[in-house]
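FAQ: What does a ligand-bound record look like?

Like this one, built around adenosine-5'-triphosphate:
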Amino acid sequence: MSSLSCENINFGYDEREILQNISLSISNGERIALMGSNGSGKTTLSLILTGILEPRYGEIKCDGVSPFDDENNFDFRRRIGYVFQNPEDGFVASDVVREIAFGAENFAVPSDEIRSRVDELLEHFGLIPWASKSPLTLSGGMKARLAIVSALATGADFIMLDEPESFLDWHGQNLLAQSMDEIRESAGIIHITQSPEFAKMCDRIYRIENGKIERIEPAEVIDYIFPTSFESNIADDKIIELENISFAYEDKTVLDKISLSVNRGEFLGIVGESGAGKSTLALCVANLIKPACGKIELNGRVSIVFQFPERQLFAETVLDDVMFGPKNLGLNNPDILAKDALKLVDVREYLWNRSPFDLSDGQQRRVGFAGVLATRPEILILDEPFASLDFAGMDNLFHLLEELASKQTTVIIITHRTDLLEKISPRTIAIKDGSIVFDGDTETLLQNAKLCDKIGLRNTKNSVLSTV
Ligand SMILES: Nc1ncnc2c1ncn2[C@@H]1O[C@H](COP(=O)(O)OP(=O)(O)OP(=O)(O)O)[C@@H](O)[C@H]1O
Ligand SMILES: [Mg+2]
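The answer part, i.e. the structure of the complex:
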């Protein structure tokens, strides 16, 4: 049986030590969860175990082979697959079959062997109906599944998964849970996650904190729930009015005659399966795309924090990045606005002069958020704001939302985390196939098991992830 291990690893990107004396070992067929706060070093450790980053001290071995030994380097890499947080980042081919074959071709696996591996994997993971489709057109859950399968096709004995569940809807999370169960026989998994449910599916759970790693018991893994709920502070005037707006990408209708009105200071949740049209609706409200027909009236300045706010980053330093928005809008004292926003999202001062690209994913996400907050929008749209945040980040976000409510900011939140939404947004709309199929009380929606099922929503806290 194969095994992958590291021993007494020390690592730092600069003089700061990120990982100290880390040892970890995993056998083929095992599943390990790697937890820890944002910036604690989870992704860094996974990149070291993959042989992408070289530690200052310590050893990494896969069946005695080291990634830093030039002769065996190739063999090591073939054995370890990496699934990015956003699987799209790893896709290169124009269809599913080529995507699965690509990795194996790169590792010079003979072509008849590739063909039989691809056929077997397509069948085993239920991908045959998608074989000729572009990977980019699959749903989030299927993309995660395809990324895992493509890693397996290279003959990987171990697969690193960096929070693949964080943007998946309920159906996608179930698919991911099943896929991970199905590969138990073929490969070992190291799953970086903030999700207690996914962590508890693993054989062992580890937590990285302050550079050290420790094994923890499932009972020590608790979920974050918002401490209390808070009242929105709703005014009488309408700040958003949509009348019969429709939108299509090429010939596919994504929004079909949507009408919606939102009052100043109101919090509105938007739910629905991936691909339902939630983000497209948000882009229309934010004035970033124009609907084909219909009317949009906005009575306030609107800003949007995208699903991957880190992709909004571009400046040389964190502070410059956050200052860009208020400067661009000609607001007074952009530096003060930027610093206030960074403090609000809890990005510590020692990071302000760093390049935003040298931060962890969670830290980058907070900086992207700060850049939007610094423009002091009257309407704030948040696309999956709870993804990948640790406990402190969640708590911080809760208080931030509470403060925005007290200032009568209108907040629209797109999320799959209905348990959290329930606490902060009394009103939710559900979208299915481009139409609003529910507009009303969040609680009423979540109690309606039949409707939740129809729109692919997790309805109660009792529903559990299904594995095979
Ligand atoms: N390229 C880089 N250059 C310098 N510092 C970096 C770089 N990448 C990450 N860091 C720093 O290393 C630390 C660990 O980052 P890492 O990405 O491993 O954290 P993480 O646990 O995966 O966090 P998250 O939950 O936010 O994804 C952070 O303090 C981060 O700022
Ligand atoms: Mg990370």
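Follow-up question: can I read anything off the structure? Yes, for example: The chain has two domains: 3-220, 238-454.
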